[in-house]
Amino acid sequence: MSSVVVIGTQWGDEGKGKVVDIYTEDADYITRFQGGNNAGHTLIVDGKKYIFHLLPSGILHKTKRCLIGNGLVVNPKVLIQEIEALAKSGHDLTPERLGISPNAHVIMPYHEAIDIVRDEAKGNKKIGTTGRGIGPCYEDKVKRTGIRMQDLMDKDLLTEKVEFNLKEKNFLLKGMYNTEPFDPEPVVNEYLTYGERFSGFITNISLELNHAIAEGKNLLFEGAQGTHLDIDHGTYPFVTSSNTLAGNVLAGVGMGPSNIDFVIGIAKAYTTRVGGGPFPTELFDETSVHLQKKGAEFGSTTGRPRRCGWLDILTLKNAKRLNGISGLVITKLDVLTGLKTIKIATAYKYKGGIIDEMPTTLKVIEESEIIYEEFPGWDDDITGVRNLSDLPVNARKYLDKIEELINCPITMVSVGPGREETIILTNPFA
Ligand code: IMP
Questions:
Q1: What angle do CA 303, 305, 310 make, to 5 degrees?
Q2: Residues with Cβ < 8 Å from 92, sequence gap 6 or more?
Q3: Which of 78, 94, 96, 106 is the most buried (most CB within 10 A)?
Q4: pTM (2 decimals)?
Q5: Cα distance between residue 23 and residue 46, in whole Å
Q6: How far apart are the CA of 265 and the centre of ligand 1, in A?
């Protein structure tokens, strides 16, 4: 039995979906534990592209069980869309294949509306949220007025909660943001239909996973977003509203710490970020254009162009410590092909002093000068490479340097978007 957690080490979009899909081969259960449909996990299987926002990326493996933990915020409309899209590709998602925690919170239409108008109102201080209602839904959870999946099956409770919540939300929407308020009745009626739709999928995830552990099953946990979007440890306030770290698997599904065996950190061979906030190694030149074009760096949830820059060792070291990372997966190495020189940020310089750990203060991150090490690039197409030894020597040296600087073994290298375009070095389930 093994439990493996997959976590993004940067600001999300590291390529976690593909890695989870590959590791699913050895897993019995694939579980998401935080976030919502702000995530966009892209998979290319047999030349067909799939993007999942809520469903775990293991969902294409027909014999595996996928779970949505209590730590998520679920938009039932998006879940229905994903289930229907999969049905068209021959994947019938019955309750045998998908389970949803009764305690997961529900994203309501007023959460989406507030998310959009409130971020807009921040002007040049805006976070650049995905506008999916994630923050406002987590706020209601913490405020203890949130609506949970189980509430969608209780007409009286749902009516009471929606009416109570809308008194405050409508005051905000109308009084403060001058937008349309919501009438409770149609909202309740619509969400009761989602309750009917999903009642068969509701299951005690904590109980199920703990039984699975006792039976010696292999568990895979899929992180969304990335370490530096974590609400506590990220570049606050330019973060998402959940804890994105490996530690949150425990609270997000209901499991004890002794059950985690291996934490895989996913790092793109360079760095990207969507939305606002500091990005020390961001580029604004032709290299940024190269990375954006070749890496197809456009948000899979919002379609926004992603900001691009060099790999930053401080972020990776920070992620290693915060998550207890045991092995590193480097993705999109092929995107660097064709660059004459490749740089890695190895330290920051602030007010004359050298910093080699990620600063905890935004001001220091924003005002630091970045110290880079330079490496010669390579021109050979590497998408067909399946063994480390067949990579161009400069690509190997780049990977060796990353391993050395972070002091963490690389377990997999992705050299293209397809499932098969991968160099597998170690199996965390072995
Ligand atoms: P929210 O999660 O929609 O509230 O957005 C907060 C910040 O996190 C914004 O900068 C988003 O662009 C970013 N973000 C949220 N989810 C993802 C993701 O899956 N990948 C990359 N960035 C994300």
A1: 140
A2: none
A3: 106
A4: 0.96
A5: 17
A6: 18
Determine contact, residues 336/269, Cβ cutoff 8 Å.
yes
Query: Which pair of structure tokens corresponds to residue 139?
Result: 């706020």
Between CA 163 and CA 158 the distance in angstroms is 8
Tens of pLDDT, residues 337-369: 999 999 999 999 999 999 999 999 999 999 999
- 324 — phi, psi (to 5°)? 65, 50
pLDDT by residue (tens digit) across 374-429?
999 999 999 999 999 999 999 999 999 999 999 999 999 999 999 999 999 999 99
Q: Is 129 in the pocket of ligand 1 (CB under 6 A)?
A: yes
The topology under which CATH files domain 105-200 is Adenylosuccinate Synthetase, subunit A; domain 2 (1.10.300)
- The conformation of residue 282, written as its DSSP 8-state character, comes to B
Choose which residue among 52, 231, 274, 304 to substitute to test ligand 1 binding: the one with the highest number of ligand atoms within 8 A of its C-beta: 274
**Catalytic residue chosen out of the listed positions 21, 26, 28, 41:** 41
CATH number of the 3-93+204-424 domain = 3.90.170.10
352 CA to centre of own chain: 36
Residue minimizing CA distance to atom 11 of ligand 1: 129
Catalytic annotation on 13? yes
For residue 331, the SS3 value is strand
